[in-house]
Every structure is written in structure tokens, then in C-alpha cells.
Design a protein that fits this description.
Immunoglobulin-like, elongated
Length: 152
């Protein structure tokens, strides 16, 4: 067997052993704080909690998502920093988001009375393991209360 055929066979076996990464499991909004309140745009710092169900460590290279509250678009969430995601573990990703005041006012009653709201995240993530990179879709939905005193 020639060296090229041996190399191709080894590469094929290696790719099969790596397998497709399973999508992350969205566990919820861990925290949210207002960094800069205003009558127009408000800056929020949040932490989203996830779980990596894979038996291997991954590197998150980019995240590009839309955040929905009660099925209405709230804001965009982009992350361009590298994050090493441990195997079979929970992890937290930071989010800095600009949210228009009028979009928040639509959910004021639910927030004031601490009612559960549907929080959705849709988008894509670019993950890598070694030299292999893959774009995976993200689509999570959960019901969560946003406690006003915790935000302020």
C-alpha cells in the first residue's frame, strides 16, 4: 500500500472517530444586569448558561444569534471571542446586548409581576476541534422569570 493511500485511510478513520458535535443544551439565563439605562438604547450584560453534551472539548470561535422574548425579536447577540468549552460540562457565555426601550415596554407587565416569559435563542455557532471547524445551528427555547430587582 502506498504512503498516500495509507494517509487517506488514516485520515478517513480519524474523521469517523471524531464524529459530529452534538448541539449545546440551553439551560437558561443565569444573570442579567443593566449596564447603561436610557430612553433609547439600553445596554444589558447577561450570562447564558449551556451544557456541552460532547465527550470532547470544543472551541467556540463565533456566535451570531437573535434573542426573542415571548416570540418577539428583542435583540441580536454576537460573540467573536474564543472560548474553550470543556467536555461534558456546564459553561457560561457572556452577552452584551443593546435593547431598545420600546421593545422592553412590551413586556413590562410580565417583568413587573415576575411572570414567566418565553426566552428563545436562534442563530449559528462556529465550533472547532483541532483543525476541524463546523458551523452548527442554534435553536433554544425556555420559560423563565426576569426578576426586576436582579436586573437593576
Amino acid at each position: 500500500m502506498s504512503f498516500n493511500k495509507l494517509f487517506l485511510a488514516f485520515g478517513f478513520l480519524f474523521l469517523m472517530a471524531c464524529g459530529e458535535p452534538k448541539p449545546f443544551v440551553f439551560k437558561g439565563l443565569k444573570s442579567i444586569k443593566i449596564e447603561k439605562p436610557g430612553f433609547g438604547k439600553n445596554i444589558f450584560n447577561a450570562q447564558f448558561e449551556y451544557q456541552n453534551p460532547n465527550n470532547f472539548e470544543l472551541t467556540l470561535k463565533k456566535l451570531d444569534c437573535s434573542i426573542y422574548i415571548n416570540d418577539q425579536l428583542l435583540t441580536q447577540y454576537k460573540l467573536d471571542s474564543l472560548y474553550v468549552i470543556p467536555a461534558n460540562a456546564d459553561f457560561v457565555l457572556p452577552a452584551k446586548m443593546e435593547i431598545e426601550l420600546n421593545l422592553l415596554l412590551k413586556n413590562t407587565v410580565d417583568i413587573l409581576f415576575n411572570k414567566p416569559m418565553k426566552v428563545g435563542v436562534k442563530g449559528t455557532a462556529i465550533l472547532s476541534k483541532g483543525i476541524f471547524t463546523k458551523t452548527i445551528p442554534i435553536e433554544f427555547e425556555t420559560t423563565q422569570k426576569l426578576n426586576l430587582k436582579d436586573v437593576l
